[in-house]
């Protein structure tokens, strides 16, 4: 596309006119073409050559680009030099300007784009360095559909603007559009712990976002001028493709009707012949690429439950924090995929057992980290965190060493993890405060103000039944919604929704059964061991003699640790005191999940996936006999 460049000086309340450089695409013969808008925020040097080239590149793909000059309170629109004095001025002005003035610049730039008759009404934002942070703050405006932030500085340290006390992370939940954060792993302006904090905050706030960290990239790796050896054209190209992907998907173009004749080309030559277009080829087949599981469709209420139990010692055998976290994430994903309602963690270690001890265990424990000192607590902590809807996590889970890399784990993406625009008759929330109208205010990820009539202590997680009118038009910002608090089991029992899992801990294997929280206890229990019968045999007689039956209410599948369930019996004095000599006697069924396994061992996290897949037929058979 061809690019027309201009500028507009916009009056501001903060002081001085803000010059906004405009880069406008044009399509010959389409005078009424409409395009999305993109605000490009510059680094601390204002709109330099690299920033202008970046803006032109975006405009060339069909976007009207507005690049505001950030320091209109202090100087003119001219770019600062990439040298010591220019850097000092830019850094000084960055923290002399009020955060509210930065926000005003973003609001005015967005309004300018939307006021153009050639804008299609959709706007995104992007920027680098300081501009990456400003693009993030621009996304706090609900008019912004998407923002791509390159190596955004000062978000993690809350140090933008006068007083160095910005609220960018605290306001993450105000972001309604999609967000892309791009950093280099060698970025010394935003350290690893800072990037982790940003990622975790966005994750906890339930934001739709992508987070990229390029292995060898440094700060300012997209700047193609005076970058001190940091410019990486290959990575820059890939990151720009990611920018185009999100903008093309969220903003889109609208060319309008075609008008006019043949395009005029400078120094063009007449063609001797016209090319003949080849007909489209087709093999006659069409493929359905829809995703039926994208929207959960409940069938009917479900009163029966599926539980699993396993020893927390599997975490103690992992030698690093990352391995511990990854293992728990793998198990949580299995629970979600197979709609497990409860996980029970028990202890199978003997006093004489020794697990791997980190050289930092003492200092970690003093800081509250329990990955080595208390695997029971660590595993329950992470499993509970992952099951909690992302928009509630910051309310229910304070910053904690156990969770420092939890943001890297894959999402469970279960029906209870709803986004703000999604409707479901039920929704999870957390009580915030007493309502002036009476009752309790509940935060549940909606734009409106949700109130329940009950008086509930602040910080309590509650399950809500929402009014049906929300399905018709949604909730408007600030609107009051009256909801009803229900039992956590209600979405499953009444609506048939899979509503996540509960986490229970017990001291030993016996406690799995004696402390069961389901009504009447487990009526069917399955232990897993390579010394058991083939799971296939159990499935074949599922409804017959010796089988599980078709009307079971509460099924529990128990997995062993490194040494199997036999060790759990040795570690449980209460169980041995009942006269049990063979652990298989504890269970109704004793099964081998993988007869003829190729590996000498099957890890517990692998056994969970294999076991739940092996028992899937039993669960589906029960589903048919509700």
Write structural notes for this entry.
With 626 residues, this protein is α/β, with parallel strands linked by helices. The chain folds into three domains: 2-250, Rossmann fold, CATH 3.40.50.1820; 305-353 and 500-623, SPOUT methyltransferase, trefoil knot domain (Alpha/beta knot, 3-Layer(aba) Sandwich); 426-495, OB fold (Dihydrolipoamide Acetyltransferase, E2P) (Beta Barrel). The chain is built from 19 helices and 20 strands. It has helices at 49-59, 84-96, 99-115, 130-138, 192-204, 233-250, 313-316, 321-337, 361-366, 375-387, 390-396, 470-473, 490-495, 509-514, 535-540, 565-570, 573-577, 604-614, 616-623; strands spanning 2-11, 17-26, 35-41, 64-68, 119-128, 144-150, 178-184, 209-214, 305-311, 342-346, 426-434, 440-443, 449-452, 461-465, 480-482, 484-486, 502-505, 524-534, 554-558, 589-592. It has an eight-stranded mixed β-sheet with strand order 1-2-4-3-5-6-7-8, with helices on both faces. A hairpin with a 5-residue loop joins strand 1 (2-11) and strand 2. Helix 3 (99-115) crosses helix 4 (130-138) and helix 8 crosses helix 10 (375-387). Residues 267-284 have low confidence and may be disordered. It comes from Sphaceloma murrayae. This is Dienelactone hydrolase domain-containing protein. Belongs to the class IV-like SAM-binding methyltransferase superfamily. One of its GO terms (molecular function) is hydrolase activity.
